[in-house]
Design brief:
The chain has about 325 residues and is mainly alpha-helical. It is built from 14 helices and three strands. Belongs to the 'phage' integrase family. XerD subfamily.
């Protein structure tokens, strides 16, 4: 039953490989929990068994650490989905998880770094004459300039980057510098296979052009040929771990701590909203299915407005 449900999630729901791996891990732990309670099939499960599993997740045991609310909520969501699937497929005559709610999570505001810190980070990619430094600068410019998830960035192919008809891809940076930056764009593949088109700003375009002209050909010569945009030192596709290491190395050189790829995504959204962008536009750029997900960023900007008001308005302080 478990394999059928995971296949359903992969084929019909289009969940990513990372999400599927998490669901598989959570559900295997659930099956072990049921077997320990002497339950052989999903049809034998009662609501109390599901509630006991949730409690076990939060408390932990000798083999598993206690899970935070967000991880426990994910596991409960996987269990609820499994029982709904079993009911629909006729494997079980009831859904014991229907009324079991995942633990409430504390709302955490996204962390963003300042524009000045972003500039320090981008300037810390290494000497400009190094092919890998040119790749690193292009990667970080794309992450910050498009709000791409790290998996979306490393999944890019060269053909996913398009330029206006009057300019060839790979044109030397600096040429046609008055061009409207909105004429360039990148095609990102998001969660569930959803595709979105995001404008490519002038800085990101120039960094990509420098990489494509002066670095990628020499790096690609070490490999067997791949359409991937970002390559590792051996000429193959850059992995998520490799991209993470690029960011961490640049952050260390820039004297910044705690910087993650997702923090650049948060910074992209926060800086757009600070600049007056509409929240629904930011939603489309981030690839969020619901505007509610994006609205958490407006809380960041409201806090920033309060700080400015408190510091600048003569009647703000008691």
């Amino acid at each position: 039953m478990l394999s059928s449900y995971l296949a359903h999630l992969a084929v019909e729901r289009g969940l990513s490989a990372n999400t599927l791996a998490s669901y598989r891990r959570d559900l295997r732990r659930y099956i072990e929990h049921l077997e320990a309670r002497g339950l052989a099939t999903l049809a034998d499960v009662a609501e109390g068994d599901v509630v006991a599993f949730l409690a076990a997740l939060r408390e932990g045991d000798d083999h598993h650490p206690a899970l935070v609310a967000s991880s426990a909520a994910r596991a409960v969501s996987a269990v609820r989905g499994l029982h709904r699937f079993a009911l629909r497929e006729g494997v079980s005559g009831h859904d014991p998880a229907h009324d079991v709610r995942p633990p409430r999570q504390m709302r955490r505001l996204p962390k963003a770094i300042s524009v000045a810190d972003v500039e320090r980070l981008l300037a810390a990619c290494g000497p400009e004459d190094s092919p890998l430094a040119l790749r690193n600068r292009a990667l970080l410019e794309v992450l910050y300039g498009t709000g791409a998830r790290i998996s979306e960035a490393v999944g890019l192919a060269v053909d996913d980057v398009s330029h206006d008809p009057g300019q060839e891809i790979g044109q030397e940076p600096g040429q046609d510098s008055d061009q409207d930056p909105g004429e360039d764009q990148v095609r990102l593949r998001g969660k569930g296979g959803r595709m979105r088109i995001v404008p490519l700003g002038r800085y990101a375009r120039r960094a990509l052009d420098a990489y494509l002209v002066r670095a990628r050909p020499s790096i690609a010569a070490h490999g067997r040929g791949t359409p991937a945009l970002f390559l590792n030192a051996r000429g193959g596709r850059l992995t998520r771990q490799g991209a993470w290491e690029v960011l961490q190395a640049a952050a260390e050189r820039a004297g910044l701590s705690g910087v993650s790829p997702h923090m650049l995504r948060h910074s992209f959204a926060t800086h757009l909203l600070d600049g007056g962008a509409d929240v629904r536009v930011v939603q489309e750029l981030l690839g969020h299915a619901s505007v509610t997900t994006t609205q958490v960023y407006t809380l960041v900007t409201v806090d920033r407005l309060r700080e400015v008001y408190a510091a600048a308005h003569p009647r703000a302080l008691n």
